[in-house]
Write a structure and sequence with these properties.
Helix content: 10-25%
Number of domains: 1
CATH architecture: 2-Layer Sandwich
Distance between the termini: 37 Å
Radius of gyration: 19 Å
Strand order of the largest sheet: 5-6-7-8
Shape: elongated
CATH topology: Arylsulfatase, C-terminal domain
Structural class: alpha+beta
Number of strands: 8
Strand content: 15-25%
Length: 182
C-alpha cells in the first residue's frame, strides 16, 4: 500500500485518487466448530477489512459504522458525480466519510444459500440481521440464534427462545422480515 501511495504522489495523482481495500467475506479458522469457512453468520465470516483512502476527498480517521460491499457502487457513483441507479441496495458512504457522526443505517441484512460443495453445503440457508448490539439469525431449518454482541462478542451464548429476550427476538424477527421484503 505504501508503494502505491508513493507512486501516486510521485505522479501527482495522490490528491485525485481514491483507494478502496476490502474483501468479499471473512473466514473462520476453527471458530464455532467450523474449519476454514466463509459461509457462516458469525462475526468471523461477516466482518472484514474495509479501508477507503482519499487524501483529497475526506479526512483520515476511523469510522465505527456497519458498511457492506453493497455500499461500494453507490459510493463510487457519488464520488464520480454520477447518479446512483434506482434499485441499488447499498448506500453511498460519502456522508460518513466526510463526517463520521452523520446518520447511517442501524442494521444490516445477512443472507446465505447453501453451496453445492464444501462447508457451504453443510450450513443450511439463513437470513439474519445485525445491529451494533444484536445479531439474530433464522435458518431454513427453523432454528434461530440471537446474540448480544456487546456482552457476548464471540457469540457463544444463544439467547433465542429464552424468556427474558422474547421481546428483543420478536422485534428482531419483525425487522428481519421487513428487510427481506425490500
Amino acid at each position: 500500500m505504501a508503494s502505491i501511495l508513493a507512486l501516486l504522489e510521485l505522479a501527482a495523482l495522490d490528491q485525485d485518487t481514491i483507494i478502496i481495500f476490502t474483501s468479499d467475506n471473512g473466514l473462520t479458522m476453527g471458530e464455532h466448530r467450523f474449519g476454514f469457512s466463509k459461509n457462516c453468520p458469525y462475526e468471523e465470516c461477516i466482518t472484514l477489512p474495509f479501508i477507503i483512502h482519499g487524501s483529497g476527498y475526506f479526512p483520515a480517521g476511523e469510522i465505527d459504522k456497519v458498511v457492506a460491499n453493497i455500499d461500494i457502487a453507490p459510493t463510487i457513483a457519488e464520488l464520480a458525480g454520477i447518479p446512483i441507479p434506482e434499485g441499488v441496495d447499498g448506500l453511498s458512504m460519502v456522508p460518513i466519510l466526510e463526517n463520521a457522526a452523520a446518520p447511517w443505517r442501524e442494521e444490516h441484512l445477512l443472507e446465505h444459500w447453501p453451496t453445492e460443495e464444501g462447508i457451504g453445503m453443510l450450513i443450511p440457508g439463513f437470513y439474519g440481521i445485525r445491529t451494533d448490539q444484536w445479531k439474530y439469525i433464522e435458518y431454513e431449518t427453523g432454528e434461530k440464534e440471537l446474540y448480544d454482541l456487546v456482552y457476548d462478542p464471540y457469540e457463544m451464548q444463544n439467547l433465542a427462545g429464552k424468556y427474558q429476550y422474547k421481546v428483543i427476538q420478536v422485534e428482531m424477527s419483525k425487522r428481519l422480515a421487513e428487510l427481506k421484503d425490500k
